[in-house]
Amino acid sequence: MGHKGREGKYDFIIALGPETSNKEALAKWEKVSGQITRLSEQEKKQADLATHKKAQRVVEASGNRTNWIVTGTYKIKCPVIEKDYGEDDRSITIFAEKGQLFAKFNMGIIEGYMRLERHAKDIPTSGGGADTGTTAKKRKRAEFEDEDIPYDPYDSDRRSPTPEEFHLGKVTMPSPEYPSWDYRWRGTDTGCGEHQIDSEKKFYKMTFLEPLGMTIEGTFGSEYHKDCSFMAHKIATGKPYDGNISEAWAELSEDAISYR
Questions:
Q1: Residue 65: inside a domain, yes or no?
Q2: Is residue 67 domain-resident?
Q3: What is the pLDDT of residues 154-197, one digit of tens each?
Q4: For the chain, which ranges sit under pLDDT 50?
Q5: Is 242 helix (H, G, I), strand (E, B) or coil?
Q6: Angle formed at CA 233 by CA 231 and CA 237, multiple of 5 degrees
Q7: Domain of 43?
Q8: 124 with 34, same domain?
Q9: How many angstroms separate the CA atoms of 260 and 246, rounded?
Q10: What is the pTM of this model?
Q11: Distance of alpha carbon 183 from alpha carbon 116, whole angstroms
């Protein structure tokens, strides 16, 4: 006969003969238990090593003390949202594209895109340093390639103020000198798919913290809850966006939605 049992995630059978004494049965059990314990310890060490290696890769890909690379995925903790909507996985993934910083986010109840504005201390050049002639036209055209309205070089009244705000200058990435950034967001309800039309009319803030900008303290708000604070920790290195994130942002504009 045999004795079936389970230790942790391991099922086991101890074969016991008709002459097996209690002492022998105990010895067999202790042997099996020891083997299972050693297996569990080995798996834990392997898991810990894998976690350590992943964390090491994230650190190595995050730049150095003065030049951070904040692109990548961050796991979000937001007590206000979690209290009302549960502790589902929430994340933000930052991308650098065409001299701009975007982020794809999922707050559980809302998902969409963020667009960081040019840092307040990054003052555009003027006077002798300003672009002129053909160079200025090319730069202006480039700024409008991903905008929500048709580009018209002869109609300055149609120009949206947002391209200038989003187009980064000399400061292209958060750093110890430039840790706090404003952003706006566009998104949809993850349940019914309703678009949050007025979301981008208000700006929020995210501050990147030491070490290497791998922690974010930020604010977020929507029609479903009051403005609240969140914290995010970097868990994965940056990868190129699968598609065109500028177009993804533009498709969530009020004009684009109204034409659907």
A1: no
A2: no
A3: 333 333 444 577 888 889 999 999 999 999 999 999 888 888 87
A4: 1, 12, 127-145, 149-162
A5: coil
A6: 145
A7: 2-60
A8: no
A9: 18
A10: 0.71
A11: 4
